[in-house]
Amino acid sequence: MDFLEKITGKSSCFIIAELSANHNGDIEIAKETIKAAKESGADAIKLQTYTADTMTLDVDSEDFIINQGTIWDGRKLHELYQEAYTPWEWHSELFEYAKKMGLLIFSSPFDFTSVDFLESLNVPLYKVASFEITDLPLISYIAKKKKPIILSTGIASKEDIELALKTIHDEGNFEVALLKCTSSYPAPLNEANLQMVEDFRTKFNVISGLSDHTLELIAPIVAVTKGARIIEKHFILDKKIGGPDASFSLEPKDFTAMVNSVRSAESALGKIDYVPTKKMISARAFSRSIYVSKDVSKGDTVSDLNVRIVRPGFGLAPKHYKTVLGKKFNGNFKTGTRLTFDIIE
Question: Hey, which of 54, 65, 71, 123 would disulfide with 111, CB 3.0 to 4.6 Å?
Fold first, then answer.
């Protein structure tokens, strides 16, 4: 049993609704969003735990102005994080509310103090954001807590992933998942590169999944066919609320459609099983078998002149055809009689 099954009690895909900044600075909107996520089929709600000052420096130099071709270009980092953060004084109430809703709740910490704070709330697991995968001291500090860790890989090279995993393993923590992520907001579908979901699972021997920033629903469905056990998607009550993440977040209707599609994909994938089901066995009536094709008398020789392989499938299986040729009928039998070993000698 892997850590997802231990935490959720289920082996199905773990679907995370990312609250992020989609609360517009209002705790009631945050709670309504959590409730809507539950109603939309999410298994978990994820927060982000930081303040503007734990994330960056409040300076105006060019380095701290966003200029990377993003939807936030021209904004100062400190100002953006000041707008987007989830107040720490909300966390306890949101944790209790989510639990009451029957949702797992956890968070992405961004520095040591946020890890300590989340530990005080008995967080069940941690998410390391894509841009933090190179922060090995932070990853080490999280790993020491001996909780499962989900790593997003949006900016990561193979070496970055290997170093992050080694850092976690060196702390004796082996409950790790890797999420394929494209760190564009929104992300173009043709850059999703979902082959990586399967490669992560096989190459690094971890649970794999997808943190999806595309605007369509197809990527999570395809990811499931590649073995994804985790799907994470930004969730918002209504895009009219606005905010830094609104443009690439799903509203309840679309999130519900995504969840239903993922569950349908899981159902369609099924399992590897060569044992025929009752329906398959019943359907074999429409397969072929050997029948008497011409009236025969006792002592006649079984030949291609008096037996044929035809539908339905109630007679001897075609694999016995060569075996029965040349044998003798032990009675008189009419056309349409099932050929069985009981009527030949």
Answer: 54
Q: Are residues 227 and 113 in the same domain?
A: yes
Assigned domain for 67 exists: no
For residue 187, the tally of other CB atoms under 10 A from its CB is: 20
Residue 70 lies in a domain: no
Phi, psi of 134 (to 5 degrees): -90, -5
- One-letter amino acid at 134 equals T
pTM for this model (two decimals)? 0.87
Identify the domain containing residue 332 by its residue range: 278-343
Q: What angle do CA 227, 233, 238 make, to 5 degrees?
A: 150
Give the whole-angstrom CA distance, residue 22 versus residue 47: 10
Tokens of 81: 């994080």
- The two tokens of residue 287 are 């397969």
Among 250, 269, 288, residue at a domain's last position: 269
Q: Calculate ∠ Cα 330-335-338, nearest 5°.
A: 65
Do 243 and 187 fall within a single domain?
yes
pLDDT in tens, 163-204: 999 999 999 999 999 999 987 778 888 989 999 999 999 999
**From residue 146, how far is each of 9, 143, 170 by CA, in Å?**
19, 6, 12
- Let me know whether 165 and 104 are in one domain: yes
- Cα separation, 288 vs 301, in Å, equals 22
Identify the residue whose tokens are 């994470």: 232
Contact status, residue 141 vs residue 167, Cβ threshold 8 Å: no
- Domain count for the chain, please give it: 2
* CA Rg value for the chain: 30
| Last residue within a domain, chosen from 238, 269, 300 | 269
Encoded tokens for 320: 């016995």
| 226 closest CA partner among 259, 200, 258 | 200
